[in-house]
Write a structure and sequence with these properties.
The protein has 545 residues and is an alpha/beta fold. The protein has helices at 9-33, 44-64, 75-89, 92-109, 115-132, 141-153, 161-178, 184-189, 194-211, 258-271, 293-303, 315-319, 337-345, 361-371, 386-397, 411-419, 427-439, 480-492, 509-522; strands at 248-255, 272-280, 283-290, 305-313, 326-334, 349-352, 373-379, 402-405, 442-448, 453-455, 458-460, 465-469, 472-477, 498-504, 527-534, 540-544. The protein is built from 19 helices and 16 strands. The strands form four sheets. The chain has a six-stranded mixed beta sheet with strand order 13-12-9-16-14-15, with helices on both faces.
Length: 545
């Protein structure tokens, strides 16, 4: 990508993400409408949008980390963030393949820029994406990526980044128009491949990001493809994504080693189809269509640690019959698997926010959609997510859903709000009651200092245990039990009737017992409730109502 004093490479990466997200936002519904392969579930455009949104958010986070200085991130930092964001936020078959395409490009562009690097980046992206798919099929996004890379390789010797990107775009356009002649499902529907069209959109955004102007020939869908003699004679035989396929789509992130992942590929390939496994360096995104969703998840557990597990049932989409929306639902952002299970038991739809991986607005909007209700209460449980939650609410309102965002700033406030949720009363009354319960809950968490720094409680050293009350450091201690007792004493000094303790999966259960006894000894009228939060990042979360 061209580098000037005014536009460093990292800015071009940022621009690409922004332009791609904007373009996919415009074309999302059109791409959804032509989604017939491998499953005609009408979500390819949405999945690509959510995947790019996650990539863009990761790049923005890198820029935000440099806000205090005068420099911008390096190109390497930006492209790696883009690839990582796409990996952790990949949705569906198309989004998972896109994540691998971006990962392939990032591995090359992180080492340098320019026309020759862009050729190599596109070539590696296409190769890696094809390797990630268990059974590649021609006429899909894989074919479009191959042709884009081949066209980039044919660009004139010495061509700059913009010229190579334009060549790739033109090659992808031509390949996309040819997809109905390669895949029977597309020919019968008279459409081009939805994933391939999304890739053309992304390459068009790349052209604009590196040259300052969009493609000279914006893509327009061709006329409906009609096979000769009205049948599939021109189309090769192959898997055409008919309605008799597996019932479930299973997606999860997986922490595992390379050898375990190879065994996982073999097992999942035997369980179903549309298998795509992307990633590396210990973190993978797994996508598969199966009839036995539980077996697919169990296979992940045997390989490593799966999380952000999403299971979608295809039956309703195939039958074009969806249940009537429920009256009201609650969507809750939670920091760990344990709290997610707790909230699901209470009837809520959950979104997992792992440490350093906040959900994007599209992910929250998708959760609101999955809740399938006319009225939704959204609990972000993080002050930093207030704008993200507001954006998700606006997206949902545009589709006729009534959404109220309660500004919960911690998971324990969300638990308090959910505890008083009553769907039988009016929406406004329910929101007021939940908001009141959340506002009446003070919150705290324990964290371990990573380095020496100034805090509102004084100077801390690396390894110190910090007790944060309502977001500010109030206690600096040497160990978790002692710091937790001091935090509880400070919070209960202002009164309270109920203490909620949420322990990380690595925090010993004995800590909860000791803290419960500490509360009983000093505050006879105060009750204590304990939950296991799973891998939540903080050793202990505390709420006082």
């Amino acid at each position: 990508m061209p580098q000037t004093a005014d536009e460093p490479d990292a800015v071009a990466v940022r621009s690409w993400c922004s332009l791609a997200l904007e373009a996919l936002g415009r074309e999302r519904e059109a791409i959804d409408a032509i989604n017939v392969y491998p499953v005609a579930d009408g979500d390819t455009g949405t999945n690509l949008y959510l995947t790019v949104e996650s990539a863009a958010a990761a790049v923005e986070a890198v820029f935000a980390a440099h806000e205090t200085g005068t420099s911008v991130p390096s190109a390497a930092d930006a492209v790696r963030a883009m690839a990582h964001g796409a990996l952790i936020g990949a949705r569906g078959n198309s989004g998972t393949i896109l994540a691998q395409l971006l990962r392939g490009m990032a591995g090359v562009l992180a080492e340098g820029t320019g026309g020759d690097r862009m050729r190599l980046a596109l070539d590696r992206a296409a190769a890696w994406a094809r390797e990630a798919v268990a059974h590649p099929v021609e006429g899909t996004v894989l074919t479009v990526a191959d042709r884009a890379a081949a066209a980039a390789g044919q660009a004139a010797p010495g061509a700059d980044t913009a010229e190579v990107a334009r060549a790739a775009y033109e090659g992808a356009r031509a390949a996309l128009d040819a997809t109905p002649g390669q895949l029977p499902a597309l020919a019968r529907a008279g459409v081009v491949d939805a994933g391939g069209r999304g890739l053309v959109t992304l390459l068009g955004a790349l052209v604009e990001a590196v040259s300052g102007r969009g493609p000279e020939r914006p893509y327009e869908a061709p006329a409906l493809f009609v096979p000769a003699d009205g049948d599939d004679a021109q189309c090769p035989a192959g898997d055409d994504g008919d309605e008799g396929g597996p019932a479930f789509e299973v997606i999860y992130l997986l922490e595992a080693g390379d050898e375990a992942v190879e065994r996982l590929r073999a097992r999942l390939d035997a369980l179903g189809d549309s298998l795509v496994v992307v990633g590396g360096d210990g973190l993978w995104n797994v996508h598969v269509h199966v009839d036995d969703a539980g077996a697919a998840v169990e296979a992940g557990v045997e390989a490593g640690r799966p999380y952000r597990i999403r299971i979608t049932h295809f039956a309703a989409d195939r039958a074009h019959a969806r249940p009537e929306p429920a009256g009201r639902a609650v969507v809750v952002v939670v920091p760990g698997d344990g709290l997610a299970a707790l909230c699901r038991e209470a009837g809520a739809t959950t979104v997992l926010a792992r440490p350093g991986e906040p959900p994007a607005s599209g992910e929250l909007a998708d959760a609101v959609r999955r809740a399938h209700a006319r009225e939704v209460v959204l609990l972000p449980n993080d002050a930093d997510l207030r704008h993200t939650a507001a954006a998700a609410a606006e997206q949902a309102r545009a589709h006729g859903v009534r959404v109220a965002v309660i500004p919960t700033r911690a998971a324990v406030q969300g638990i308090a709000a959910l505890a008083v949720h009553e769907p039988d009363r009016s929406f406004d009354e329910d929101v007021v009651a939940m908001t009141s319960a959340a506002g009446a809950t003070r919150y705290a968490e324990l964290a371990v200092a990573e380095r020496q720094s100034w805090t509102s409680a004084g100077i801390c050293q690396a390894g110190d245990v910090l007790g944060l009350i309502d977001g500010d450091v109030a206690v600096i201690g040497q160990d978790v039990p002692g710091t937790a007792r001091k935090v509880l004493d400070r919070m209960l000094a202002a009164g309270g009737e109920l203490v909620t303790l949420v322990l990380d999966e690595d925090t010993p259960p004995a800590l909860a017992e000791a803290l419960e006894q500490h509360v009983r000894d000093g505050h006879l009228a105060v009750d204590t409730t304990t939950y296991r939060g799973g891998r939540q990042g903080a050793p202990l979360l505390i709420g006082v109502e």
